[in-house]
Write a structure and sequence with these properties.
This protein is of the alpha+beta class. The chain has helices spanning 2-7, 11-25, 45-52, 76-81, 213-231, 233-249, 252-276, 441-444; strands at residues 35-38, 56-57, 84-90, 98-105, 108-112, 121-125, 129-135, 140-145, 151-158, 163-167, 172-173, 175-179, 187-193, 196-202, 292-297, 304-305, 307-309, 314-317, 321-331, 340-349, 353-371, 375-379, 385-387, 391-409, 415-421. The strands form four sheets. Strands 15, 16, 17, 18, 19, 20, 21, 22, 23, 24 and 25 form an eleven-stranded antiparallel beta sheet that branches. A five-stranded mixed beta sheet has the order 2-1-3-5-4. A five-stranded antiparallel beta sheet has the order 7-8-14-10-11, with no helix packed on it. The longest helix has 25 residues, at 252-276. The relative contact order is 0.10.
Length: 447
């Protein structure tokens, strides 16, 4: 847009980049498709795509437009899977691509990947050849030739449960989620398809499509009835009188006398069950009583207890550190996505010091742990280990264990430690079922 051209840091370079992008778009098609990777953490490539149609992306999270299943990293296998043809750097050469192909357009440096082959659809299993006949916003059409047996085909785009595949004969070919790269956590679209033409579209139903439909209809009917009744004086008066009569007949005191204790009992029962179950996360506590022992000292000094404030819900060693429960975003199951916001133990140092924290927790299952600084973690029955980046720890037996943390803090730099049960972050996702090892009988029967 005109506003973009005015506000861009390098309008002349952007004009050259736009002209270059239009030239490249003219060379793309179903049989030779490519993307441009911006080797930056900004979103400026979105303007280039909007103005020229060149497919672009960057590896960082993209607010509001981020598919959960997408490119995983910038490894050679990942770049090939997603048809990355160009890499663009701003005010510097990209870290990826053939240096001999570098083109400089103002502040933009562009390199080409020698490994690009333009194949949006690839054979994963089977023999023969797959060609892409159509590739647009509505559908992807492929043709499998050179074989009489089904083949497993994967597309270079992120998986979504609405994808479906239909053979030219009209038969359905179930779509599955295939890891983007060997050992990857994210997925692309795949399907066992019969020889001939198959069309992929994104219009399949979801199990959740009609969730809440009945409640929505009832709510709409109630809202319409309320509007109609309120606009007719005779009906409105009758309704208000009826409400007053019912209000007078309802035994409020007995309901309060028995209902309130029942609600309290239910809350206590729920809390007791949660307390007896496996810990979902670690914390130092912020209620009426402390759940942890917190100690701090200046380097090589004597350890001192950090008293607990029931009013503030925090542990305080005056002049050294304050420890409390908060949240942090240190855990992520797939780096291109936003990190999870999880409960965390946070330490705010007033001076450089060491801190150690002891809590007890029932550990059972798989937990994810991370810290903003190197942390010594000691858990009953386990050798001491150091936690820094994302770590996965598994425990069995539903045992009550002592957990100890120890780390060094620098004045002015807050510290966070997270320890969260994995299934509270990543629920079971049956729609990410992988393709079967062999073509199903229904696919083999397609003619």
């Amino acid at each position: 847009s005109a506003e973009t051209q005015v506000l861009a840091a390098d309008p002349a370079g952007r004009e050259l980049l736009g002209a270059w992008a239009r030239e490249q778009v003219a060379t793309l098609g179903p049989a030779a498709w490519g993307r441009a990777l911006f080797d930056e953490d900004t979103h400026e490539q979105m303007h280039l795509t909007a103005e020229t149609g060149l497919p672009t992306f960057h590896m960082g999270p993209l607010p509001d437009l981020l598919l959960r299943e997408r490119i995983e990293d910038t490894s050679a296998a990942s770049l090939a899977r997603f048809n990355v043809r160009w890499v663009i750097g701003l005010n510097r050469s990209p870290a990826i691509g053939n240096p001999d192909t570098e083109v400089v357009l103002g502040s933009y440096h562009i390199r080409t990947l020698d490994t690009w082959d333009g194949k949006f659809a690839r054979l994963e299993k089977g023999t023969g050849e797959v060609k892409v006949l159509r590739l647009d916003a509505e559908a992807v059409e492929i043709e499998v030739t050179g074989t009489t047996a089904p083949v497993l085909v994967a597309l270079g785009t992120g998986f979504y449960p609405r994808w479906r595949a239909t053979h030219a004969s009209g038969a359905d070919e179930p779509v599955h989620a295939l890891p983007t790269i060997p050992g990857g956590k994210l997925h692309v679209v795949s399907a066992w398809v019969a020889p001939g033409k198959t069309t992929f579209t994104v219009d399949a139903p979801l199990p959740s499509d009609h969730d809440g439909l009945v409640l929505s209809i009832l709510a709409l009917a109630f809202a319409l009835a309320a509007i109609i009744v309120w606009r007719i004086p005779r009906l409105r008066t009758r309704l208000l009188r009826r409400v007053v009569t019912l209000r007078a007949r309802i035994p409020v005191a007995p309901i309060a006398r028995f209902g309130v204790p029942l609600v309290i009992l239910a809350l206590v029962l729920r809390a007791t069950l949660d307390w007896q179950g496996p810990a979902k996360d670690l914390g130092v506590g912020s209620g009426l009583r402390p759940l942890a022992t917190v100690e701090a000292r200046v380097p090589d000094g004597e350890w001192q207890d950090c008293g607990y404030s029931r009013v503030m819900g925090e542990y305080r060693c005056p002049g050294l550190v304050t420890v409390y429960d908060a949240t942090a975003n240190l855990l992520n199951d797939a780096p291109p996505s936003w990190p999870f916001v999880t409960p965390a133990i946070v330490a705010s140092p007033d001076d450089s010091c060491e801190v150690r924290i002891y809590v007890r927790a029932r550990l059972d299952g798989t937990y994810w742990a991370a810290a903003t600084g190197v942390t010594d973690l000691a858990i009953d029955g386990e050798p001491q280990r150091q936690i820094g980046g994302h770590e996965e720890l598994t425990y069995e037996g539903h045992a009550d264990r002592s957990v100890g943390l120890r780390t060094s803090l620098l004045a002015g730099y807050n510290y966070s430690f997270v320890f969260v049960r994995a299934d509270t972050l990543v629920p079971d996702r049956p729609f990410l079922a992988p393709p079967p090892l062999e073509a199903p009988a229904a696919i083999r029967a397609i003619r």
